[in-house]
Amino acid sequence: MTTQPLLDASGVAKNYGAVAALRNASLSVLPGEVHALMGANGAGKSTLVKILTGAVKPSAGRVLIRGETRAIHSPAEARRAGLVPVYQEPSLIPDLDVAANLRLTDTPLEPFMNWVRELGVPDLDIRDTARDIPLAVQRILDLARALAVEPDVVLLDEMTAALPANLAERVLDVVRRQSQTGRSVIFISHRFVEISALCDRATVLRDGATVGVVDIAPGVEEQIVELMLGAKIEKQRASVRKSDAVEAASAGTTRLAVRNLRVGTKLNDVSFELRNGEVAGLIALEGQGQDELFGALSGSVRPSGGTIEVDGQTLQFSHPKDAIGHGIAYVPGDRSEALLMQRSVRENIALPFSARFGRWGPINMRQEQARVVSAIQRLQIDTRAQREVQRLSGGNQQKVTIARWIAADARTILCFDPTRGIDVGTKQEIYKLLRELAGQGKSVLFYTSELEEVQLVCDRAIVIFGGRVVDVLPVEIADEAALTRAAYGLPRGAQQDVGILADVSHGSVSAL
Amino acid sequence: MTRFLRRQGWVAGLFVLFVALLIVTKLIQPGYGTGDFGSLVRAVLPYAFAVAAQTVVVIAGGIDLSVAAMMAVTSVTAAAMMNGASEEYALLVVPFVLLMGLALGALNGILIIVTRVPDIVVTLATLFVLQGVALLILEAPGGAAAEWLKATIVGTIPIPGSPEGIAAWVPKALVLLIVCLCIVWIPLRRSKLGLSIYAIGSSELAAFRSGVPVARTKIVAYALAGLFSAMGGLSLTMSTGIGAPIPGPYLLASVAAVVLGGVVLGGGKGGLLGPIVAVFVLRLVRTDLTLLAVDPNVTSIIEGAIMVVVVMFGAFIAMRGRQS
């Protein structure tokens, strides 16, 4: 006997211009099941969620709810159709109090308060303005608001990510009971522990298409990882870095030492060292604390605990200029964050070292020109459109963001996903440049979301999961499969006998 | 009580400031009486409507630069239509002009939504367009207003059962202002539409995800601004008896009062009462400075200084409150 699915989406596709964010995704959720939606970064999870909840219109495909075709054009329509999402970021209106937020979505108060108590927040005053409520509680309120309208399907996007352990446990408990009443939950999470403890089935996305639906059973983690990686696992190992070169790099002295660093709720306890002459790769799924780590190292975010040592000296950065003053430069992933888009290549490259002196005196133009020209030549920046940086290609813009720190003679460069969205040729040049910098005794911390880059550029890979360092892989074994397993908090090398409830936070931590 | 003070503290403070200023006025000019207060309210009337218009849009997270120009257009339209017409004809003119304001405001909103040009640019453009339109309707100040319309803002309203002395301090213009604002604002505040206006000003994304039709709500906010502007335009015609095609100083005054009234320029915060009290404060300051025979140029310097000081003071209090 087959039961009719509550929600059945098939052939869903979404194109943004020429780019296909989703090619052929399907998702079928049965009544009373907790269904995991999984996929690596950029596999199309968030696009599928947006389509199901009416935030984005699909280019193709159909969505059946209880066997009927329903076109969902807005979040309000999704809500009426019985599909209520809880997004990753809180969606309470910050300037309205809780009561007004409930009125806005026609949420009945009584069941809402019951759920709030059930979820472990006993002392909520509904006249509090949402902005003044702690972030974790706001997420709980989001969930309570969703449950209060008794939806057929609740969609939880990384629900437990920002929650302290006691609240997270309550949430999981409520989700489990939700499924016992015949309602369904779509559960998006990077944590295998939660998925194996909670979910009945999982749909795996890869490159915008559904590649498999699996039943959750002990040992299924490996199968899911394989599905997420797909053919990549078989791919030719491109020029893996020679191990003797790696040894040379590991001989350098310690440049930057991070000990027990904590930032807010995202970065919990991170320790590692960065040596002179090495490129250390940093691998993490989205939102595991890497943004906070880079923020703290570059002086734009104040850590809530732990220390940062530069050349053996403990330092506290209160402003990016402090970090820059110690030769630590940050190259953000979003180029518009780093560049003055309307200004020339010269001004952009000269900005850090000309502004560094902290006074507004005249600029030594000749000296500036010489340094800029040498940096441009070194990076082979195409300067035909140099009067406005915004007219350069993405790759050349990225080169400018790195060139400025070479001109400023920074000793440590923190690169946050520098190769995202740029062409292959420029990527190669950036790899080469980072290696050259390491060869000159400089140090590079290189976060990347493209795992194959690790073996091309790095000397080792530091893996962060849930705000902690879970593994440090030597480059020889840091292939995509190993990195993916590590990034999901699965222990290294123990492929068969992973218990379904492997304790991620303690079981697989390996020190440096 | 503390919650009330936290929420309404700003308005209460402004109100205290206003009363203090009234006392100061009485000290400067012992003869200041009911008649003077009546003319103050009449002078404030168009400003108050301009402020109401700006407030709605700012709460929704936008800004409307065409407020004063829209007042000019609606004012000359009303004056031109009533010129030589019968008294009863004015009964048709008033709703027509109000609808016209509503439509012009909605047009602003639709242009912002459809063209995706920033609100500040769109409303600047409509400012110029409406300035031209006003001059096409009336080349020079002129036209007329129905007598009964002019009479609605002159004199006081006898309140049954209250002593003569109190009623004398309730000019008809004040009652008209309160009635007009309440008719629009109170139902709005109590409806989901009003909540939605606050919601899109506070966070457009969160509002969208909460199921608020963001585009429609924004258009409604601009339409309401148009409606309030039309009321302002009508009040101009009522107090002067004619229509003037050149916009008055209402745009900048409206932004000033909105800020002073505790509405955050980014949207989502504040109410209508604060800006209205603020505009009374600003006008009374001007009156006082005139009574003190201060150079008019110095007057505007002082007005600017007061604004900066008051808003800074408010931010300081808010910061202290958050720390404790």
- Gyration radius of chain B, rounded: 20 Å
Largest sheet of chain A: 6 strands, mixed
> What is the CATH level 1 assignment of the largest domain in chain A?
Alpha Beta
Helix content of chain A: 25-40%
User: Shape of chain A from CA axes?
Assistant: globular
Report on the structure:
The complex is a heterodimer of chains A (512) and B (324). Chain A has 512 residues and is of the alpha/beta class. Helices cover 35% and strands 24% of the residues of chain A. Chain A has helices at 45-52, 75-80, 98-104, 109-118, 135-148, 165-180, 192-198, 220-229, 243-250, 290-297, 320-325, 335-338, 345-355, 365-379, 394-407, 424-439, 453-457, 480-487, 504-507; strands at residues 7-16, 19-29, 34-39, 60-65, 68-69, 83-86, 153-157, 184-188, 201-206, 209-215, 254-263, 267-275, 279-284, 305-310, 313-315, 328-331, 412-416, 443-447, 460-465, 468-474. In chain A, 48% of the residues are buried. Residues 233-238 and 495-512 of chain A have low confidence and may be disordered. With 324 residues, chain B is mainly alpha-helical. Chain B has a domain at 39-248. In chain B, 75% of the residues lie in helices and 0% in strands. Chain B has 14 helices and no strands.
